[in-house]
Write a structure and sequence with these properties.
Layout (H helix, E strand, L loop, with lengths): L1 H22 L15 E6 L14 H7 L8 E3 L6 E3 L2 E8 L2 E6 L13 H12 L6 H6 L5 E7 L2 E6 L6 H4 L25 E7 L3 E6 L12 E6 L3 H9 L5 E2 L12 E14 L9 H9 L3 H7 L3 E3 L22 H13 L7 E7 L6 H14 L3 E7 L1 H8 L11 E8 L6 H8 L11 H12 L2 H19 L2 E13 L3 E2 L16 E2 L2
Parallel strand pairs: 1-10, 1-11, 14-15, 14-16
Antiparallel strand pairs: 2-3, 4-5, 5-7, 6-7, 8-9, 9-10, 11-17, 12-16, 12-17, 13-17, 18-19
């Protein structure tokens, strides 16, 4: 069914684009993007749920905020994997639990205030030790406490309760804001040091950024960027081919971008998070059956672009385990495992709910329909509930929805742009992880040991943890390492990289003329 649907969509989209181009009609709907030749016009799959800087590790927020509005002390070059200076020019390790950062001079925030060590310390404390429940806290710093102390205006000392061998990398996720930022509440429109500042956010319609004239770095080519959002990939693609947008992301091959399409490798891995503590998913045989029942090759051939995967990080990330292969498609084995569990009294007739997210990747709903079909054939009862991003986030992040929501399989996607499995394991698999629905003491110990290791021992320890998850825990059904596809207008030169889905840097977009 999925294959035939994909085959039918291409001529329909192509005809739509040709018709619109000939007629001059808008595909953007009632609110097309305006702007002149100095403006970038970007169409996203969804509106950012927030621009709160301490939630910039969320894809929908980070692709707008990170390195555009706000910046961190350090940044990782996605093409080389090296950690580079940003608002800090250099750093040194004083001891196993202490680092010193030398800060860049002459940097100002969008409100005119100076960037100092006090602002850096404030931002770190706000992101990691406040009542805001920042995503970056659970994602990056769940494994320990840290204290940031200004030494002088240009020097910052950061100490940790436990050894922190990759602290400078962790701090690349803390977006720096001025001390005037509310320390106890989320902000809607953050102030940063980035090359662009917020001009106007008309919620539900568009978000406009303008170039910041006081930016410390190189002046970006485009004076402004306007973001809109359209759920349908074919509409996003048609907006570029019809000259209504300059950049469209989150596309599928059949969306009709034609010669405007640019394919790129991503670090995003799609997966289903299982409620392994709730019956019948609390029986490992049922979780194994879920994995055997999913046709990953079929999904990546007919539904979305990618390659089947068996773990939540991609090649090149510290901890990646080449021996952890994708689960094979074995529907007969899936049926036998379900039948075996049922014979032992497991309530396999309990309805499982796939909680999906609209726009998480192209053809998200169709992908979950393929999964549902496989699970039903294995002997399980499954329904699908597709949600928009804000409702879906309630299932992704602690505290999870109150009440008996029943056993769920959460459609999710994880992009480890930092390049170290520490940014995956604790938050997603730890018993108390911000995105974890289940954990074990043995698994927690493996994760903690890996996080304290360094060098080759770190790689080995995290690889062992991924093997343990795949063989002994089976909390997830990992689907695929995703391939990205975007569309560019002729006026823009831009080379996407593996971090593009998480942080789409406007300063990297150049004029083609």
């Amino acid at each position: 069914m999925a294959g035939s649907g994909a085959a039918r969509s291409r001529p329909i989209v192509t005809s739509l684009v040709v018709l619109l181009a000939a007629s001059g009609c808008s595909v953007a709907g009632a609110d097309p993007i305006g702007g002149g030749p100095d403006d970038l016009r970007i169409v996203l799959p969804e509106e950012p749920p927030t621009l709160e800087p301490c939630d910039a590790s969320l894809t929908a927020t980070g692709r707008v905020t990170r390195a555009n509005i706000t910046e961190a002390l350090t940044e990782r070059d996605a093409s080389t994997g090296r950690l580079e200076p940003a608002l800090a020019t250099e750093w040194a390790r004083n001891s196993a639990t202490s680092w010193t950062f030398t800060l860049r001079r002459g940097v100002t925030f969008h409100d005119g205030s100076a960037f100092t060590a006090a602002a850096a310390a404030f931002s770190i404390e706000r992101a990691t030790d406040s009542g805001i429940d920042c995503n970056v806290d659970g994602y990056i710093f769940a494994d320990g406490e840290l204290t940031a102390t200004p030494v002088d205006e240009d020097t910052l000392r950061v100490t940790t309760a436990r050894p922190a061998p990759i602290l400078p990398l962790r701090l690349s996720f803390v977006e720096i804001v001025p001390t005037s930022t509310d320390p106890d509440s989320r902000v809607r429109e953050p102030v940063g040091t980035g090359p662009y500042r917020i001009d106007e956010w008309n919620q539900g319609r568009y978000l406009r950024l303008k170039r910041f004239p006081g930016y410390w770095g190189k002046t970006p080519d485009f004076a402004a960027a306007t973001y809109v959002w359209r759920a349908e990939g074919s509409v996003r693609a048609a907006m570029v081919t019809n000259d209504e947008a300059d950049v469209a992301i989150g596309l599928a091959p059949e969306d009709g971008a034609g010669d405007r399409a640019v394919e790129f490798a991503t670090n995003e891995v799609s997966y289903l998070r299982m409620d392994a503590g709730k019956p019948p998913l609390d029986d490992i045989r049922v979780r194994q059956a879920v994995n055997y029942a999913i046709d990953r090759e079929g999904l990546t051939t007919a539904v979305f672009a990618g390659r089947p995967s068996g773990q939540l990080v991609s090649k090149g990330v510290t901890g990646y385990n080449a021996s952890v292969r994708p689960w094979p498609y074995d529907p007969e084995r899936a049926r036998k495992l379900v039948a075996e569990a049922r014979a032992d009294g497991v309530r396999t007739d309990t309805t499982l709910t796939i909680v999906g997210r609209n726009g998480i990747y192209p053809k998200a709903a169709e992908a979950m329909e393929v999964v549902q079909d496989g699970l039903i054939k294995a002997g399980l009862k499954v329904r699908i509930r597709m949600l928009d991003v804000n409702a879906w986030l309630e299932y992704l992040l602690r505290p999870f929805p109150a009440g008996d929501t029943g056993p769920t399989l959460l459609q999710a996607q994880h992009g480890n742009q930092a390049g170290d499995a520490a940014f995956t394991m604790g938050q997603i698999y730890g018993s108390e992880g911000a995105q974890s629905s289940y954990g074990t003491a043995e698994f927690d110990a493996l994760i903690e040991r890996a996080e304290r290791a360094s060098g080759g021992n770190r790689q080995k320890a995290f690889a062992e943890a991924f093997s343990h998850q795949n063989d002994k825990v089976v909390r997830d059904a990992v689907l695929a390492n995703m391939t990205g596809l975007l569309a560019l207008s002729p006026k823009v030169r831009y080379r996407p990289d593996s971090a593009t889905n998480d942080e789409m840097r406007l300063a990297d977009m150049r004029r083609a003329d």
